[in-house]
Write a structure and sequence with these properties.
Blueprint lengths: L5 H7 L25 H8 L14 H14 L3 E5 L2 H12 L5 E5 L4 H10 L6 E5 L7 H4 L4 E7 L11 H10 L3 E5 L4 H4 L9 E5 L13 E5 L1 H14 L5 H12 L1 H21 L3 E5 L9 H7 L6 E6 L2 H11 L4 E2 L9 E3 L11 H6 L6 E5 L5 H13 L1
Bound molecules: pyridoxal-5'-phosphate.
């Protein structure tokens, strides 16, 4: 039976049952698989047969996890990785050659930015950056060597929204691969392939797991591109472990219900913060005050669970606020059941020069909240007492 509804796909796209007829899928913690005879082994290695050989290549648990994400994103194929960064790195490493050029949004995940600035130049791969509020500037950056157009939306931690449809048009016009890191939205909220993305990357560590337990990454998209990424990965070894795939595949079964509540809570927290006298401004995609509200409504089903807000009083106020929180966690993760607060200027983005920080919207008083699944009254109560401290 084929299912088109997201929730049903997430739950009923399961691997085949074993002879034990288990209801919940088992874990296949095995590094390798056996062959019936020499001919079976030959046919499996030559890919005439679709058979698991070695868990660095494929494993039933990782295949199940990948298949779910492929269905959720409306992709053709996918591959799973040990971490989100392994997925990001392997995608570029598999598809680019020395001399190639990337055009990327400046506001990308910190380690992705480090790949572009510190590591890719070692292999003669260069990157040019566009600002979130200047998509018209993208075309000026494209050269004959440009191969990939790369972006995230919503951005971290500025919560800017990039028009995916526009990025899709630019990529098509200039024959570039559009690669979108869709981690903040999840496939439940936004499907970049619909807007022209060729590949979609997720850190499964965040909302996909949603409970702060395991690391993981996944890339889905066009079959031929995934084939290149798969071959690169099966030889270099960044693959997802079967255990993590089992955990993540279970997590996806509840992604829709978790996201509904995450976003409902986040919207209430955003409205509360917007009215608070100690807060200068709030960035949340589904607040009318968000500069790209119309684009957010066009491409996102819900507003997500991440809020950025600016405290009156700058750096000192930001640190005081974090110290005054009684329930919310101070942690580098996001997309957990537990509400998490961070102060990017003194932590994740402290290595950027001040002018660079300001370009991507990280002011000294900026706080990022990953709204969790506690009762929203308790989240608001904790934020309020910390704001009044
Ligand atoms: C966390 C994150 C990553 C990296 O994922 P890891 O699983 O931590 O390696 C990449 N992109 C975005 C947007 C992220 O939030």
């Amino acid at each position: 039976m084929e299912f088109n509804n997201f929730e049903t796909q997430a739950i009923r796209n399961q691997m085949e049952r074993s002879q034990y007829e288990e209801h919940s899928v088992p874990m296949y913690l095995t590094s390798s698989f056996v062959f019936d005879d020499a001919e079976d082994m030959r046919a499996s290695f030559s890919e005439e047969k679709e058979k698991n050989i070695y868990s660095r290549f494929t494993n039933p648990n990782t295949t199940e996890f990948i298949n779910k994400v492929v269905a959720m994103e409306g992709a053709e194929d996918g591959y799973a990785f040990a971490t989100g960064m392994a997925a990001v790195f392997s995608t570029f490493a598999a598809l680019l050659n020395s001399g190639d050029h990337i055009v990327s949004a400046r506001a990308v995940f910190g380690s992705t930015h480090t790949l572009f600035t510190k590591y890719f130049p070692k292999w003669n791969i260069s990157t040019s950056y566009f600002e979130s509020d200047d998509l018209e500037g993208i075309e000026k950056l494209i050269t004959p060597a440009t191969k990939i157009l790369y972006a995230e939306s919503p951005t971290n931690p500025g919560i800017d929204i990039l028009d995916l449809e526009y990025l899709g048009e630019i990529a098509k016009k200039h024959n570039l691969l559009l690669v979108i890191d869709n981690c903040f939205a999840t496939p439940y909220i936004q499907n970049p392939i619909k807007f022209g993305a060729h590949l979609v990357i997720h850190s499964a560590t965040k909302l996909m797991d949603g409970q702060g337990r395991v690391l993981g990454g996944v890339v889905v998209g066009e079959k031929e591109l995934i084939r290149e990424i798969y071959l690169f990965s099966r030889n270099t070894g960044p693959s997802m472990s079967p255990f993590n795939a089992w955990v993540l595949s279970k997590s996806l079964e509840t992604l829709a219900v978790r996201l509904d509540r995450h976003c409902e809570n986040a919207e209430k927290v955003a409205v509360f913060l917007e009215k608070h006298p100690k807060v200068n401004r709030v960035k949340y995609p589904f607040l009318l005050s968000h500069p790209q509200y119309e684009i957010a409504k066009k491409q996102m089903k819900l507003g997500g669970n991440i809020i950025a807000f600016e405290l009156k009083g700058g750096l000192a106020a930001g640190r005081r606020f974090l110290d005054a929180l009684k329930m919310c966690s101070l942690s580098a993760n996001l997309g957990d059941t537990r509400t998490i607060a961070t102060h990017p200027a003194s932590t994740t983005h402290s290595k950027l020069a001040e002018n660079e920080r300001l370009i991507v919207g990280i002011t000294d008083g900026l706080i990022r909240i990953s709204v969790g699944l506690e009762h929203v009254e308790d989240i608001i109560k904790d934020l309020n007492q910390a704001l009044l401290e």
